[in-house]
Amino acid sequence: MNLTQLYETYQALEDPNLWQDVYMKFYRAWFYEGRWMQYFEGLGVTILVTIIALLIGVVLGVLVAVVRTGHDQQRKGHHNPILAVLNIICKVYVTVIRGTPMLVQLLIMAFVVFQNSRNFTMVGALALGINSGAYVAEIIRGGLMSLDPGQMEAGRSLGLGYLPTMTYIVIPQAFKAILPALGNEFITLLKDTSLISAIAGKEVLYFAKAIGAKTYDYMFPLLITALMYLILVLIFTWLQGILERRLRASDRR
């Protein structure tokens, strides 16, 4: 860019009509007819969908991780056929979910599995939860497998069964190690809620696109949506950091 082009760019930025046009576009995208309330309505749905999907993902992830870890840690010569069947089912679930795009899974859930449902928001939350469960399962399984096998043996020697040993001894220790990865999965899940707008799920991006269609300008609605997601991610990253510091402090005591 030469000096003439720089001068022309500077002159354009100094043009009051330019800033008036920018302000009017922002006004139509945020203030006009109380449209800011639509963003916050969608933001509330986004947070609700994230929480529901997170709960589903954690429950599925823990169950799958426990089954797969229990199968892999069986003693030689002691093979449980029921556990073997469950392990195969879990492996297929993880492989299929991790091997197919999230958007395709959403479309299948909305237009094939629940084709008669009109509550696309909850269908999207279910699909996100099932998807997250596969990743959470691998995160938890990695944490469980990284622990000293002697932890399990110590629990069993005290007379505890497999599930009580996992619940009270193994999983609490593994949680500290996998917390950063779980936090990253939660942030990814939060951002993936924007995909449910593809099946008419009424989260914040759905309303941003609707406002953009009314104003014939998508720049500010999308920028506002991006800023909302960024603020949420920063808040949850901050909260995750506080939790990690507290866990480290408890280890030193």
**What does the overall shape look like?**
elongated
Question: What share of the residues lie within helices?
Answer: over 70%
Helix tally? 10
State which percent range the strand residues make up: under 5%
What's the main sheet like?
Answer: none
The structural class is: mainly alpha
Alpha-carbon distance between the two ends: 60 Å
Order of helices and strands: HHHHHHHHHH
Low-confidence stretches: none
Gyration radius (Cα, Å) is 24 Å
**Mean of residue pLDDT values:** 84
Total E-strand runs: 0
Folded structure, characterized:
With 253 residues, the chain is an all-alpha fold. The chain is built from ten helices and no strands. The protein has helices at residues 3-14, 16-30, 36-72, 81-99, 102-113, 120-146, 149-157, 162-192, 204-215, 219-252. The N and C termini lie far apart (60 Å).
Topology:
Layout: H1 3-14, H2 16-30, H3 36-72, H4 81-99, H5 102-113, H6 120-146, H7 149-157, H8 162-192, H9 204-215, H10 219-252
Key structural traits:
253 residues, mainly alpha, 10 helices, elongated
What's the short story on this structure?
The protein is mainly alpha-helical and about 250 residues long. Helices cover about 80% and strands about 0% of the residues.
